[in-house]
Design a protein that fits this description.
By secondary structure, this protein is of the alpha+beta class. The chain has 2 domains: 228 residues, 3-Layer(aba) Sandwich (Beta-lactamase), CATH 3.40.710; 124 residues, DD-peptidase/beta-lactamase superfamily (Beta-lactamase, 3-Layer(aba) Sandwich), CATH 3.40.710.10. Strand 5 and strand 6 form a beta hairpin. Helix 1 runs antiparallel to helix 2, helix 3 packs parallel to helix 6 and helix 3 packs across helix 10. It starts with a helix and ends in a 7-residue tail after the last helix.
């Protein structure tokens, strides 16, 4: 039996669980039938995604107006031991790490500890002053946040995603501090003049995390723990191989013969702030809703608690982006992609509040966190909108963003948990 066919059987029990009803669906209230229909539709979308991509396990969470309405898992977090994937499974969140790093940056800006328009050497004096076209140029934290610094991404010689071609992506070298990890790229030429062009780069966020350490006087790990501790994200931490992490998944990829295999061990110490964080969908929903609340909290509001970030800071985080060049009407802000005038999948009027998200691709993992506000302000002191978090323990599992958008459409029609 090939792996993709096996995925159908692996997903089947979960689909049955959500569709079964001993008393008969006709006995349920209308709102409950509607809610169960939405869950079933989302389950079918996930099963289809797993089948098309050969994904062993998917963990998914959905919140509406700040409250989690659905959190579950399909398939296996560990194929060899047949350990089920659940809503508590911990996986690599990959580049969603950048979104957390951007929020840490915004906090330091709020506290006047960081100037995003100052030369990065103000905070990392050991980083070489760069030249482009034989002229000295300035790299700023704002440019690092928006991928416009000109710093390169992973080296590769072709389009293949092999260990030989992507040695940096599969790096397994331990760096004892962020400054040491800068040696991987700090002496390389820039790809463009800073500020002139969007070029996605993991290493840019590595440099940014070094600047955050200097500006705050704290290690990046401490900054992350300060953020997650404040929000109650108890399952979010740096991806360290020796640590015992409850509910941690194993990671998989397809080899050149299209055979499922375990991914090699890698060391994420070169990219803590850009792709080196572990979490689960429960924590990601907490994170997403904290930003949704901050986005909709008005300065005159008397709502409690106070937001994680001030509204004017959120405007910096989610506005003034640069075109991502990947999708029309898509921009990159401070650690977030955004589509300010996204339309519903079925057509219709644009959602003028837009949608904000970040995908992730790491060794053996794919991810997305999507935040879709429904208005500009809090309603009855609560955030209004949909958050979707998806984690998959498969490398290069394509179109995960499309899956998240589809699930957000399924659940976003004024749904309230029964």
């Amino acid at each position: 039996m090939n792996w993709r066919r096996f995925c159908i059987f692996a997903a089947a029990p979960a689909v049955y669980y959500f569709s079964s009803n001993k008393s008969g669906i006709s006995d349920q209230p209308n709102h409950e039938r509607s809610f169960n229909a939405k869950k079933l539709a989302a389950e079918k979308a996930i099963k289809r995604y797993m089948l098309l991509n050969g994904v062993p396990g998917v963990s998914v969470g959905v919140s509406i107006d700040g409250k989690t309405v659905w959190r579950s898992g399909v398939g296996f977090s560990d194929v060899e031991q047949c350990v089920p994937c659940t809503g508590d499974t911990v996986m690599r969140i990959a580049s969603i790490s950048k979104s957390m790093t951007a929020v840490i940056t915004a906090q330091l800006v709020e506290n006047e500890k960081l100037d995003v328009d100052a030369p990065v050497q103000n905070y990392v004096p050991s980083f070489p002053v760069k030249k482009f076209d034989n002229e000295e140029v300035k790299i700023t934290c704002r440019q690092l946040l928006t991928h416009t610094s000109g710093i390169r991404h992973y080296k590769s010689t072709n389009d293949s995603k092999t260990e030989e071609n992507l040695k940096e992506f599969y790096a397994n070298e331990q760096f004892d501090n962020v400054l040491d990890s800068l040696k991987m790229f700090q002496d390389d030429d820039l790809l463009c003049k800073p500020g002139s062009k969007y070029i996605y780069t993991t290493f840019g966020y590595t440099l940014l995390s070094a600047a955050l350490e200097k500006a705050s006087g704290k290690k990046f790990e401490t900054l992350l723990m300060d953020l997650t501790g404040k929000l109650g994200m108890n399952n979010t931490r740096l991806d360290k191989n020796p640590d015992i992490v409850p509910n941690r998944a194993r990671y998989y990829k397809f080899n050149g013969s299209n055979k499922l295999e375990n991914t090699p061990e890698v060391n994420c110490s070169y990219k803590w702030g850009s792709g080196g964080i572990l979490s689960n969908v429960a924590d990601l929903l907490i994170f997403g809703n904290s930003l949704l609340y901050s986005y909709q909290y008005q300065p005159s509001s008397t709502a409690s608690p106070k937001p994680l970030l001030k509204s004017k800071t959120m405007k910096k985080l989610w506005s003034g982006g640069v075109p991502s060049e990947a999708v029309s009407n898509e921009e990159y802000y401070w650690g977030w992609f955004g589509r300010p005038k996204i339309e519903r999948l079925g057509g219709g009027a644009p959602n003028r509040t837009g949608v904000y998200f970040h995908t992730g691709a790491a060794v053996g993992a794919s991810s997305i966190l999507l935040i879709r506000p429904t208005c500009q302000t809090l309603v009855e002191n609560q955030p209004t909108g949909t958050c979707v978090a998806i984690l998959a323990n498969m490398e290069s599992a394509g179109r995960i963003a499309q899956l998240a958008f589809e699930i957000s459409e399924i659940f976003s029609d004024d749904l309230k948990k029964p």
